[in-house]
């Protein structure tokens, strides 16, 4: 197996895991009720409508990430969400602990990887946007 194929396999695994995590977070917001989530956002000083945007990016973006569709664009949304979560909620809890931001930081790192990476794995993006000279 050549290096490009190995990198695409690893990137696919990372992308699917990232997509599953965000999909589950989006589903969690739906199950709690978007109105409740909006109320919580307002309680920490954020606009309640932002809860709907975040839930949409997490849920639909998660599904898109799993199938490898618009990976870079979804990753920009993920990075914004993670930066927002760290700065507005998690930072006072410290890096490690029950309210720590270590997971948020790891998810941010993965999102940044997919914004800039040469290899984003196998998926719809590769089928739609593959360069003609790269036939793998």
Automatic annotation (TrEMBL):
Q: Which GO terms describe its cellular component?
A: plasma membrane
The record ties this protein, via Pfam families, to: DoxX
Main subcellular location of this protein, as a coarse class: membrane
What keywords sit in the KW lines?
Cell membrane, Membrane, Transmembrane, Transmembrane helix
Can you say where in the cell this protein is located? Cell membrane
Which InterPro entries has this protein been placed in? Answer: DoxX, DoxX-like_oxidoreductase
Concerning its family, UniProt says: Belongs to the DoxX family.
What is the name of the protein in this document? DoxX family protein
């Amino acid at each position: 197996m050549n290096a490009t194929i190995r990198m695409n396999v690893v990137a696919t695994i990372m992308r699917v895991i990232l997509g599953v995590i965000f999909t589950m977070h989006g589903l969690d917001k739906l199950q709690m009720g978007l109105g409740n989530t909006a109320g919580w956002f307002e309680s920490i000083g954020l606009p309640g409508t932002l809860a709907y945007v975040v839930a949409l990016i997490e849920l639909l973006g998660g599904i898109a990430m799993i199938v490898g569709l618009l990976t870079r664009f979804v990753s920009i949304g993920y990075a914004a969400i993670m930066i927002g979560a760290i700065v507005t909620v998690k930072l006072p809890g410290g890096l490690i602990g029950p309210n720590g931001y270590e997971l948020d930081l790891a998810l941010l790192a993965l999102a940044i990887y997919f914004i800039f990476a040469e290899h984003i794995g196998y998926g719809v993006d590769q089928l739609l946007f593959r360069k003609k000279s790269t036939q793998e």
